[in-house]
Amino acid sequence: MDRSAKENDYYHEVSRYYDLDAVDFEQRYTENPVLQRIREAYRTVTDQYPFSNALEIGCGPGFDAIYFAKKYPSRTIYGIDVSPRMVELSHKNVQAEKLTNIHLAAGSVEDVTSQFPDVKYDLIYVFFGGLNTVYDLKKAANHIHSFCTEDATLVLTFVNRYYITEIPLWMMTGRFDKAFERIFNKWQGYSDQRKIPSKPYSRKDIINAFSDEFKITGHRGYSILYPAWYRSHLLKKLKGGAEWLWKIDNFIAKTPFRNTGEYSLYTMKVK
């Protein structure tokens, strides 16, 4: 796909970030119980929707593509990731599992049609905010619509702009810059050492991007009071209290405050 020089530079930076992130990505995941729990929650939602061809945008090292391919061997999973190194890891893991119903490619959401020509998807899912690093969310929504079937379901997760409990936690450590960076759209990922081009989204941002072509059928939040993945060390300190925070989050997720945590999950249908 033809892109402007600015857009190419943007995706080059994103790709470079995740290529470096791939070095120990799998190890960090296996050591993080919060990531594992939230991923399982995402899968539980996604498992509700039947499909023939599923597309994962931001497939990383293939954790979820492999999960769905093994669970549904008669169905086909496609995965795309902006990081060539992540795709290499995916290929290695798919080969280790001897799966033949997964197809993988390197690229962004704008490259799906060129990488997988003539394929339409009845399920598209994005876990852990893969669309927060697209160049233009509205254009990304248009691209997604172009390769959906008429009855397609989307299961999309986003990093939130308004993460309320993080503000006092950062302020207690004197990091006022971190406390408010999402609100002022200055967030560039989780690391102070390496920055990634990205945008945290509000509910309004998501509605503005998707509402022309999709209708929202469900919406809930994660890590509202329950610790975010990068605060998993708090689980030991909280002990049994962590379970209560998870249960409280499940309640808050049914209220208008559901998008005030680390992630929001939206289910959508084609209009």
SSE diagram, text form:
Blueprint: H1 5-21, H2 25-30, H3 33-46, E1 53-57, H4 63-71, E2 76-81, H5 84-97, E3 102-106, H6 112-115, E4 121-126, H7 137-146, E5 148-159, H8 166-172, H9 176-180, H10 203-210, E6 214-222, H11 234-238, H12 241-252, E7 263-270
Parallel strand pairs: 1-2, 1-4, 2-3, 4-5
Antiparallel strand pairs: 5-7, 6-7
Helix pairs in contact: 7-10
Could you explain the architecture of this structure?
It is a single chain. By secondary structure, the protein is α/β, with parallel strands linked by helices. The protein contains twelve helices and seven strands. It has a seven-stranded mixed sheet. Strand 2 (76-81), helix 5 and strand 3 form a beta-alpha-beta unit. Helix 7 (137-146) crosses helix 10. The protein is globular. It starts with a helix and ends with a strand.
The low-pLDDT segments are none
Kindly estimate the percentage of residues that lie in beta strands according to DSSP.
15-25%
**Which structural class fits the helix and strand makeup?**
alpha/beta
Reading side by side through the largest sheet, how are the strands ordered?
A: 3-2-1-4-5-7-6
Question: What is the straight-line distance between the termini?
Answer: 26 Å
Spatial shape = globular
By DSSP, the count of extended strands is: 7
- Cα-atom Rg, whole angstroms? 18 Å
Total of DSSP H or I helical runs spanning 4+ residues: 12
Share of helical residues:
40-55%
Order of helices and strands: HHHEHEHEHEHEHHHEHHE
Sheet with the most strands, sense and barrel status: 7 strands, mixed
Overall average residue pLDDT: 95
